[in-house]
Amino acid sequence: MSMIEDFKNEREELNGYVFKYAGKEMKRFFSLDGQMYREGAIDSATKELLGLVASAVLRCDDCIKYHIMQCVENDVSSQKIQEALGIAMMVGGSIVIPHARRAFKFLDTIIQSGEKLIKKEFIELLSVIEKILKTDFDTDEKLHSVCKLLHEKISYYDWVGFYLVDKDKEKELVLGPYVGEPTEHTRIAFGEGICGQAAEREISFVVQDVSKEQNYLSCGVKVKSEILSPIFKNDVLVGEIDIDSHVVNPYTDQDKIFLEAIADMISELF
Ligand code: SME
Predict the structure, then answer these.
(1) Does residue 16 have a pLDDT over 90?
(2) Which of 20, 38, 179, 257 could tie 151 with a disulfide, CB 3.0–4.6 Å?
(3) In DSSP terms, which residues pair with 244 in a beta bridge?
(4) Residue 8 burial by CB count (10 A; 0-12/13-18/19+): exposed, middle or buried?
């Protein structure tokens, strides 16, 4: 088991004891803790950095580890984490140094392990998708609900749709359910554009700036970037989940991991 899983499991186990014995006031305090770190005027990543600084000044190693983990899950760079720990040291003084040592070791172990972390916001969306897939809707309705959810909840997902492999025509994708502006590209041959290339090579594509892509089918001047992941059923390509954004360079590794996880879940519909 990985170090992060170990840490999470231990935390969950201990929380179990807390919830076994805690009264309602303590339970409320716990839920307040979760709510306090939710995105507000301050984004979640910055809130985690603030939590990290406070934890380091107060010298709680468990809390430091937790916030470092949350920072990594929220795509906070190690440069930002080290600057935050610098502020903690400035405020707390040299007594923070031993905690900073352990903090950097923990950060390094996470980075070296190359573990795929999915941020909390994406984990929550994955569980909503799981619920959508369990409804009595038909396949198209389910796919459409997934598009609607992602389009609504992720600000830079401006077009969300599915291209499905046409069973009756060789090596051709046909547009499935989508949310966003209508597109003229309702059929795409394998190899054509980003969707066709992804179908041919059976890999995810992350195009941070479509103006730099030669083999690209434009869906309008507003679209600046695109990301997509193939969907497989028993190792056979059945479709793709495709996202267009009106922003240049909006995606991180997290988006790719997230879309691949969705593609994995969606494959049960085929
Ligand atoms: N841009 C895609 C075409 C599909 S739209 O983005 C909806 C491509 O190059 O394949």
Answers:
(1) no
(2) 179
(3) 159, 226
(4) middle
Q: How far is the CA of 270 from the centre of ligand 1 (A)?
A: 22
Strand order across the beta sheet in which 159-165 lies: 187-189, 172-179, 159-165, 236-245, 225-233, 205-207
Using a 6 Å cutoff on CB, does residue 225 contact ligand 1?
A: no
What pTM does this model have?
A: 0.68
Site to substitute for ligand 1 among 160, 194, 223, most atoms within 8 A of C-beta: 194
Residue 114 has pLDDT above 80, yes or no: no
Helix (H) / strand (E) element for 234: namely none
φ and ψ at residue 223, rounded to 5 degrees: -75, 125
DSSP single-letter state for residue 218 = -
Ligand 1 mean position, distance from CA 195 (Å):
6
Read off the DSSP letter of residue 21. Answer: H
